Structures are given as C-alpha cells and as structure tokens.
Predict the structure.
Amino acid sequence: MSRPAIAHIRLDAFRHNYQIAKSAHGGKALAVIKANAYGHGAVPCAKAIESVADGFAVASLEEALQLREAGIQNPILLLEGFFEVLELPKIVAHDLWIVIHHAWQIGMLLAAKLEKPVQVWLKMDSGMHRVGLSPAEYTSVYVQLSQHKNISKIVLMSHFANADNLNIAHTQQQIAVFKNATIGLNAEVSLANSAAILAWPESASKWSRPGIMLYGANPIQANAANSVVTTVKDPLRTVMQLTSRIINIRTIAQGESIGYGSIFTAERATTIGVVACGYADGYPRSALNGTPVAVDGIMTRLIGRVSMDMLFVDLTHIPTANIGSLVELWGDLVPVNAVAASANTIAYELFCNIKRVQFEYSDTAETIILK
Ligand SMILES: *Cc1c(COP(=O)(O)O)cnc(C)c1O
C-alpha cells in the first residue's frame, strides 16, 4: 500500500463555486487559478471550467504557458503583468492579457516592437498601497496608453485590502477613490475579489476576479471580526478534502507526553492515534492542540506537535478506531477555515502548501488518480 495521504479534489464543486461567484456578482468572472490553483492543480481546475469560464488569472507567464500547453484557449490575465521585456513576444504569441501596475512597465511596453497589440488591465492603487498607479496619474496614463499602437484595449482595475472585514469602511473608501479617479473614462472595470463578491455588492462591475471562494473557503466566514454573518448559510461547496489514515494506536498513562517537545501531556489515560500526514505534506506545524480532526466520521482533536511526516490525534472517545481508520484533516466535517484559525493563518496558505500527497480528482461520476 502506498502512503495514504490524499488530497481529494472535487472538480464538480469547483465548477459549482465558479457559477456561484459569477451569478452573485453578475457580468463576467475571471477564475483566479494562480499558484497552481491555490494548490489544487491549475490544469485540472482550468479544464473543469474551460467551457464556461470567461477567463483565467495567474501570476506569471510560466503559469499561463502551462495552461496554454494543456490546450486552454480561454483568455488568461497575468496579474503582475510582465517582469522583463523578453516576456512580451511570448505574451503576444499566446494571446495573454497583462496587468500594468507601474511606470517601468509602461516604458518597456511602449518602446517594444510587437507583432500585435496587447490587452492591458491598468491597475490603480486605490488604497491597498501594494502596486498600482496613483489615482492622480491614472487618467493621463490611460489616455496615453489608449492612443498607442501596442495596446488593443484597456480594462480599469483595482484590488481591495480589507474586503473580508465587514466592520470597516476601507472597501467603500477604495471604491470611492476608484470611481472618482476614473470619471469620464469609458472602459470596462474590474474590482471584486471573492470577499467583495460575497459582501460588497457596490463593488460590482464588468469583471469579477474570484479566487478563494472557488475552492470552497468563504473569506467572510473566516474572518472572526464578522461574527454577525457567520450564521448565513454558506453557498460554497468543499473542493479539497485532505485525508490520511491511522498507522499506529497506543494508550499512554496519565502524566506521559507525546511527540517532539512533549507539548501534550495526558491528564488521564489517553488513546492516541498516529496519522500519516505532517508538515511536509502541508499540514501546518503551527496548529494548536485541540485543532479539529475527524476519524471515521467522528470529531476529535489534534494533540502534540505536528512532525514532518506524522501527527497525533486523540482517540480516547473513539474505541472503534483502528489501524487504517480514515482521518479527515480538512474537508466536509472539518472546515479548512477552522484549521487555519487554529494555526493562526488563512485557508489560502494551507491550500497553497499542500504537496507530496497524492492528488485524486473526481468530477461527478469519474475519479482520476494523479501522481
Ligand atoms: C489573488 C487575487 C485575486 C483573488 O483573490 P481572492 O481573495 O482569492 O478571491 C483577485 N485579484 C487579484 C489582483 C489577486 O492578486
């Protein structure tokens, strides 16, 4: 038997979540599948929605070429544009759209000799202060680019810093800054990430850019600041179920400790299970004692320090558990957001870190095993 750590990826749920994102926002939706589709596998995820997706967004030319080589013909946006001028001929050859966020890119783009003009998504820094043109210079740059032979079409875009927090006005302020600085520009607009799609209808425009919600992790429900909305039924379906199996069971006496650093000491006789999954698979080492885990469908808790290849779970109240029992680390019973909160991180990081495990893809009826 090979090592039982498996990431089950439900492509039908991914497709469902794309439709939810698109219809919740209206207009068109670029499915954000950067970073190997947040760890889920960019090519299978793209293939699962290629017939319905308005386009895809990735972080680099390399990520886009992987999709093109797999036969994906939908529009693809490079979210950071290009990093050096040598990328431009390939961007043109593969019909990619580029974000332009800084003057250095504009200089290179306008000086280049291109076979065909490219579509540009002109990014404004409306308040996140990461990348983007300032609101003050935005219109003049737009006018300059719109008259240039290297540019076919310009979409106006910006990105939110706090759309997952319903208790502060920053998102509305960013929308106002953006609207003010684009008065009179007759062009398509793209503002909303997942959190804005779910929580800020006033951010709606021609193009949404859903990412994390496609993978079934609701960023509004993840933010503890939003306690009021956590009772709303989540329309998203779980895409990744991370499972492994029990490979050892033993009972330790009161006062005995387990694992590296002996961070868990039994207060009474405790049955422990050892699970074949560790931080080298992407399960967070920072997860605290008490992080939820399910064994054979019964909820229990992580105990002890997560090691590279194994972790411990408490089986004291699950006498039916045995060698080979199925352990869900996150998925249907264990919300990925709960594991993330316990590890002081976010679902995005947990997903992106998944590696070494076997990936099993299912789409309604069929199951495909990769690796
Ligand atoms: C990653 C990214 C997104 C998607 O964000 P989510 O929070 O995952 O929905 C949207 N827009 C830009 C510019 C991004 O970098």
About this structure: The chain has twelve helices and 19 strands.
